[in-house]
Amino acid sequence: MPTPTDPRPLTGEPLSLDLLNTRWMQDGARQDLFDLPEGLHIWLAANALDGRFAADGTTLRHLLTARDALRAVVDTPGDAAGIARVDAVLAHGRIRATLSAEGPGESAEFDDPSWGPAWTAARDYLDLLSTAPDRIRKCAHDACILHFFDTSRNGTRRWCSMAACGNRAKASRHYARTHGS
């Protein structure tokens, strides 16, 4: 069965931010990918996790726990309660060092495989924090709730999408200038 089309306006962000972006605004109403019957399957497939983890109710419950925990720490960095919630998700897995003919490596292990996608998203957030915490951003448009990892050369990206939110903001400023009193 082919994977249904992903309806989200922003995809392709790092895993932890992509999980946050399973909620978005459309025509003034909050949308949630996981409200769709095939939403979990779409998200797992979009992140190449569909062959490794089951798209079932338990996995979805754990992902929702991780999404709420990540939202708390991304929206309020340093929040003790949010940090504890992310740590609680991370407690369900670990990295095991390995050695193979190709050389050293790592593999993730989980106390319960249904925690795999949630743990992997939380672990990805730690990687982003280690790489460039100042590049984890929320879209600057007031009505947008999407997040992105700023990969621009000078680190000044403000919008989830210039074509959508950036143009709306510029159009609003232009209207205010030309129609202002």
Please report the distance between the alpha carbons of the first and last residues: 58 Å
- Count up the helices: 6
Radius of gyration in whole Å, from Cα?
Answer: 18 Å
Beta-strand content bin: 15-25%
Secondary-structure element order, N to C: HEEHHHEEHEEH
Overall pLDDT metric: 92
The stretches of 5 or more residues where confidence is low (pLDDT under 50) are none
Read across the widest sheet, the strand sequence of neighbours is 1-2
Supply the helix-strand structural class. alpha+beta
Largest sheet geometry: 2 strands, antiparallel
Number of strands: 6
Shape: globular
Q: How much helix is in the residues?
A: 40-55%
Task: Give a short summary of the structure.
By secondary structure, this protein is α+β, with helices and mostly antiparallel strands. The protein has six helices and six strands; from the N terminus they run αββαααββαββα.
Verbal overview:
This protein is of the alpha+beta class and 181 residues long. It has helices at residues 15-20, 39-46, 57-75, 80-90, 116-131, 162-179, and strands at residues 23-26, 29-32, 93-100, 103-110, 136-138, 147-149. Helices cover 43% and strands 17% of the residues. The chain has a two-stranded antiparallel sheet with strand order 1-2. A two-stranded antiparallel sheet has the order 3-4. A two-stranded antiparallel sheet has the order 5-6. Helix 3 (57-75) packs antiparallel against helix 4 (80-90), helix 3 (57-75) packs parallel to helix 5 and helix 4 (80-90) packs across helix 5. 28% of the residues are buried.
